[in-house]
Write a structure and sequence with these properties.
GO cellular component, one term: nucleus
GO molecular function: DNA binding
Number of strands: 4
Structural class: mainly alpha
Strand content: under 5%
Number of helices: 11
Order of helices and strands: HEHEHHHHHHHHEEH
Pfam families: DDE_1
InterPro entries: CenT-Element_Derived (IPR050863), DDE_SF_endonuclease_dom (IPR004875)
Organism: Photinus pyralis (Common eastern firefly)
Strand order of the largest sheet: 1-2
Helix content: 25-40%
């Protein structure tokens, strides 16, 4: 953010709008405060819209991937039999990135996303159709809304027909009997059904809908588009992050207490063990000098100071040696 402010030079008379997504790395209170103090307005995108609203995604990253792929292919041709490593990637990116980060591509990204020049109608209705499958009713919305009902001006039997399955009935289209002199005007009227005023394929076969989403267990809060530098939004983020920090601090303290308890239990178990004494001088092990060596008897497996023995190997204490004699 300091780099951005240094080069853009925003002021109170000419504030700067910074567009970004709701990633956790962009919601640091320190960064938001710095932006607000330096006349930078931070506006976040709505969730799941970066593929349409992010200028870099629209016109820069695509060409960059293409140029990078070409650079990788050229490297493989120029280095036959070699494997590309992570140390070769920076040089490839150095050649590919300037070709994608051109002023034309950058300005085109803002244009196709409707940001500059501003165009609220840049996206047509057909671009929203794929999201219609996962549309879910609002939690507070009334459940009284139902699917459109086909209005017919003909017989009432047509209205009671099941509209969930395809039908070849004449209730959906106008059926006109060919003219015949033998039919009276009354009979012609009975065999004619007027077509509905509004017709859609959704009446015949409704669009598929996704099932109700299960509650998320990941613990991540769902974000929305907001001006992050506004005081209410900033205060809400600050309270949320302080709450998260306090919970994390309590968890760390709890782990430290449990670790200390386990350490005390281990020390108490160690203190309950019998003290080891030298078989020759009867000095305890606890009074050993630093780097003083001990040696174990080959038969009884008791210990003695190495300085108290004759240094022979294998070591046999005087008790075991007398028993053998």
């Amino acid at each position: 953010m300091e780099h951005f402010v240094f080069h853009v030079r925003p002021s109170r008379e000419n504030p700067v709008l910074l567009l970004l997504d709701n990633h956790e790395s962009h919601l640091a209170i320190k960064t938001i405060n710095f932006a607000k103090e330096n006349n930078v307005i931070m506006l976040s995108f709505p969730p799941h819209c970066s593929h349409r609203l992010q200028p870099l995604d629209r016109s820069v990253y695509g060409p960059f991937k293409k140029y990078l792929s070409n650079s990788q292919a050229a490297w493989l041709r120029n280095n036959p039999g070699k494997s590309m490593t992570i140390y070769d990637i920076p040089s490839l990116v150095r050649d590919a990135l300037p070709q994608a980060l051109t002023p034309i591509n950058i300005m085109k990204g803002f244009k196709v996303s409707g940001i500059e020049p501003y165009n609220r109608d840049i996206f047509t209705d057909d671009e929203f159709l794929p999201a219609g499958v996962t549309d879910q009713p609002l939690p507070n919305a009334e459940s009284s809304a139902t699917s459109p009902v086909l209005q017919l001006s003909g017989s009432s039997n047509a209205n009671s027909q099941d509209m969930s399955q395809p039908s070849t009935s004449s209730a959906h289209c106008e059926q006109v009997i060919p003219e015949n002199d033998s039919l009276s005007p009354k009979n012609k009227q009975e065999h004619t059904i007027q077509e509905p005023k509004e017709f859609s394929p959704e009446f015949v076969r409704p669009f598929p809908k996704a099932e109700q989403r299960k509650p998320s267990t990941r613990g991540r809060k769902k974000r929305k588009s907001a001006v992050l530098t506004d005081t209410p939004e900033k205060d809400e983020l600050e309270a949320e992050q302080n709450s998260r920090k306090s919970k994390k601090t309590k968890e760390i303290q709890k782990k430290k207490v449990e670790k200390a308890k386990r350490k005390v239990m281990v020390e108490s178990d160690d203190s309950s063990d019998e003290e080891c004494f030298c078989l020759v001088c009867t000095e305890p092990f606890s009074r050993s000098k630093p780097k003083e060596k001990w040696i174990k008897c080959f038969h009884c497996e008791f210990w003695s100071y190495e300085a108290c023995t004759d240094g022979g190997f294998p070591y046999i204490c005087h008790n075991c040696d007398s028993d053998e004699d």
